Amino acid sequence: MLEKLSKHRNYLHTIPELALEEYETAQYIRENLKKLNLEYIEVGTSTLCFIQGEENETIGYRADIDGLPLKENTNNLYRSQKKNQMHGCGHDGHMAILLTFIEEVVKEIKNGKKLKKSLLFIFQAGEESAGGARYIVKNDFYKSKNLKEIYALHVYPEINKNEFAIKKGCVSLQNINLDIRLQGKGCHGAQPHKGIDSILIGAKLVEAYQSLKSRNIPSNENFILTIGSFKGGEVRNVIPEYIDILGSIRLENIELIPFVKERLEEINKGFEIAFGVKIEMEFRPFYPPVFNDEKLVEMAIKYLGDYKVYEDIPLSGSEDFSFYLEDGTPGVLGLLGIKEEDNGYIYPLHNEKFDFDNSSLIPGVEFFKRILEFRDILY
C-alpha cells in the first residue's frame, strides 16, 4: 500500500495547481481511473467516479485537489515544479489516500467480494477559497446518486502520526469575507492638516473592529476576526486618498451573522461621521460551518479502536465540505495526524515548509476501508 500511496502523492506534489485550474492534476486522476476501467464524469476540473453496488444507496468519499500560492521551502525530492505554487495544505495526500482506496476496493471486487451499497468518489477542485463543492452539489449526476452519507479526511500536523481527531458537532467554522475601501483625502505628508489621513483612520478602524469580539460577542461564542491585508499609498511622504483592507471572520453560531454585519456597519458609519471619510464594505458569508453527524462519528471511533482518537479537536478554519451536508446528508470530516517531531514534520498547514512522510497516509486508507468492511458493505 505504501508504494501506491507514495507513487500518487510524490507525483501530485510536483504539480500543484491553484483553485479551479487543476488541469494536470485532473488529468492524472482520470488516467488512473481509466487504468481501473472505471467510468467518471467531469465537472470542470473536478472528477466524480461511481461504482454501482447491489443497492442504490450511495456512500460518498471526497478528496480536495487544489494547491496554494506558496513558494515551497523543503528539501524533498518531489518538491513542487511550479513557480510559487505548492501543496501546502496536504491535498496531495488526500488525493493519494482516495486513489489508493479506490484501487483497494477494485482489487477486492476482482477477488470475488461483493459491494452492497454504491460508492461515489469525489475529487473536488477549488477547496481553497473558491468553494468548489458548490458546483458539485448542483450537478445532476451528483444529485441522482442517492447519497446517504459522506466522508473526508484532512491531514493535520498538530496531532501525531497514526492518530485521528474526529469530533461530534461543529468541526470547522462559518467564514465571512470582508472587503473594505476607506476613502480619505490625499495630501502631502508634510501638510497633513490639508488632507484626511486614510492610514491613521484605517488603523483606528481595524482596532475598532477588534472590539466586536471583546465587547459585543458573548465570551462563550467561537468567534475570530482577522485583518490580513492593509494596503495604501506608494511613497513615504504622501498620504493616500484610499486604503484597502481585507479580512475574514470565523464563527460557529450562524445566527450571529446579521448582528455582526449590523455592528460593523455601525462602526463604519461612526467613523464616517467622526472623521469625514467614506467607507465601502463588502460582507460576504461563504463556507458554512461543518457539523459532523453524531451517529457516524460514534461508528467511526468504534472502527478506529486500535488508533488513538481525539474527540475534542476542531478546525479553527473553514471547509467547503459543508456544502455536501447542507441538504441534510450526514457526514464526517476527520483529521489525520501527520506530526513527527523527530523527523522534522512539525510545520503547520499553509506553511512553506509543510511536509509529511507518506506512511502517515496509511491509516487514512484503512479508515475508509473499515467504513465498508465493518458494516459488511464490502463482503
TrEMBL record:
Pfam families: M20_dimer, Peptidase_M20. The Mn(2+) ion enhances activity. CDD domains: M20_Acy1. GO terms for molecular function: hydrolase activity; metal ion binding. It comes from the Bacteria. Mn(2+) binds at residues 89, 91, 128, 154, 350. Keywords: Hydrolase, Manganese, Metal-binding. Its cofactor is Mn(2+). Residues 177-267 form the Peptidase M20 dimerisation domain. PANTHER family: METALLOPEPTIDASE, PUTATIVE (AFU_ORTHOLOGUE AFUA_6G09600)-RELATED, PEPTIDASE M20 FAMILY MEMBER. This is Hippurate hydrolase. The lineage of its organism: Bacteria, Fusobacteriati, Fusobacteriota, Fusobacteriia, Fusobacteriales.
